[in-house]
Each structure stands twice: as structure tokens, then as C-alpha cells.
Amino acid sequence: MKILAHSYVCPKGIHLNGNRVFNTVEAENPLKSAYQQLGVEYPKFYKMDVLSKMAFIGTELLLPFFPKEVDLENDLQLIFANNSASQYTDNLFLDSYEQLNNPSPSLFVYTLPNIVTGELCIRHKWYGENCFFVEEAFNPAHFSEWAQIGLNKGNNVCLCAWVEAKTNGEQECFLFLLTDSEHADNSIELELSTLIKQYRNE
Prior knowledge:
Layout lengths: L1 E9 L2 E4 L2 E5 L6 H9 L11 H13 L9 H4 E7 L4 H12 L6 H4 L6 H10 L5 E5 L5 H13 L4 E9 L5 E9 L8 H13 L2
Parallel strand pairs: 4-5, 4-6
Antiparallel strand pairs: 1-2, 1-7, 2-3, 6-7
């Protein structure tokens, strides 16, 4: 297994393969600024929740690295995870219900974390398997194990992501493309752990 490419989205900036491509530190709305800098036209972006917006931006950056010979409509698997599920949007929805006495249907749609994978599948017409896990922390072993299961079943590429948005302001989306390799690489988990630490400046 090997990593084809990776991206990282957070309020401080947008990165691709370890290099900052968009600086959003001074932007009033970092995700909106990054979307505009991408130069894509997808008006539904503005209605998405934070998780979906981050994953949308990170995925757009990775598109040139998807293997051209792969049938992405059917042979791509999505494996996503975070710690807080849809907590950020859940609280916004509760506020709309309890404080404004006007429960928001547009927020209610995003009170499930797996909506983020649904948004990406709709955007790119991907019909393969997708899953969203809730875990204590980023776990490279979990991603590599599930990716290997998918690859063994016939999927050619796995788009994986740790995408987090907490009520304390913590936001990040670490996306990476995994594919099979003729040469076994047992260091994939260490590589993933190292990459996210570098992005976080840990």
C-alpha cells in the first residue's frame, strides 16, 4: 500500500503534499476564501456544514492525483473518521430550535457525520463503498486496515480522511489517497502519523 497524495485543511491554511497552497490566516471566512481561490463553480458549497466544506476543498486539491485508469465511479472507497461526529452542527441546530424557536431544516440535514461522504459522492458521481467512523483520535492503523480490506475486495483507490470540527473551534481535515503497491510497505502507518503531526506542527 502507498500514499498517492495528501491534503490538509485548517483555518490557518490549505496544504497539498506538505506545501501550503492557500493562505487563509487573515481571511474572515477561511473556508469561503479557500473555495474562491480554488476557482470551481459549485454553489451548493455555501450550504454545506463545516465538515463537508473542508472535505470538499481538500478533495478538489487531490483530484489531479487520482489514477486516470481507475473507474472512480465504482472502484473508489471512502473511509472517513473523526472524534466528535457532527457535534458542531448538532449544537447549531439545537440553538435554532431552543433559542430561535425555529428549527433549521438546512442544519438538520447535516446532523449526521456521514453526510460529508455523501456530499463528495454526489459531487463526483462516486458510487462505491463509503463509511464514517467515530474514534477517540486519529488512528493510522484503522485506516490502513480498512483500506486493505477494500483493496482486497477489488477497490483500486481509497480516499481516507480525518475530518474534525469541534465546538471549541478545533477544525482540521487530513485527506490522503491510498492504493495498492507491488512492494509491501509496512511503514504506511508511521508515514501517516508523521504527516498529520507535521501538518499540526506537533
